[in-house]
Amino acid sequence: MVNWTMTTQLPVQLAVAEIKDVRVGKNTTAYDRLAACARRYADLYQGTPGDIPGVQNARQFFRAIGIDPTKRRPSSEALLNRALKNKELYSVNVLVDIGNWCSLDFLLPTCIYDVNKKVECFI
Fold first, then answer.
1. Which of 32, 59, 70, 89 is deepest in the core (most CB within 10 A)?
2. Residue (of 21, 22, 39, 43) closest to 31 by Cα position
3. What is the pLDDT of residues 46-72, one digit of tens each?
4. How many angstroms separate the CA atoms of 37 and 121, rounded?
């Protein structure tokens, strides 16, 4: 079951999806696609991530919600930095790999939380 919520209170739009009854199994497809995406960026771009189309969008989003992107990098930019330096991207589990793959592919930060575990969020 997926429940969607949209908010437009900020000068940006956020989408939240709650997906229930997920079972995390062993599957390397998401990590393989994440690694392939990282290789494409490394092959296409040299230089600083800020020059790559799309990176500024995440930085603008962070500024809009009061986070300085020079002090706390968007996850998409952190993954991109690793890709451009040909550093390994770590596989945690298939859900995290999917989140990282989407974050790197779209160059927008994504996050995945287990609603049954307490997390501390801050802005």
1. 59
2. 39
3. 888 888 988 998 998 888 888 899 999
4. 28
Please report how the helices 75-84 and 29-44 are oriented relative to each other, as an axis angle in degrees rounded to 10: 70
The more confident residue out of 122 and 2 is: 122
Domain locations along the chain: 24-123
CA distance 55 to 15: 19
Q: What is the 3-state secondary structure (H, E, C) of 8-74?
A: CCCCCCEEEEEECCCCCCCCCHHHHHHHHHHHHHHHHCCCCHHHCCCHHHHHHHHHHCCCCCCCCCC
**pLDDT tens track for 16-25:** 888 888 888 7
pLDDT at 1: 47
Q: Which residues, 6 or more positions from 58, have their beta carbon under 8 angstroms from its beta carbon? A: 69, 74, 76, 77, 107, 108, 109
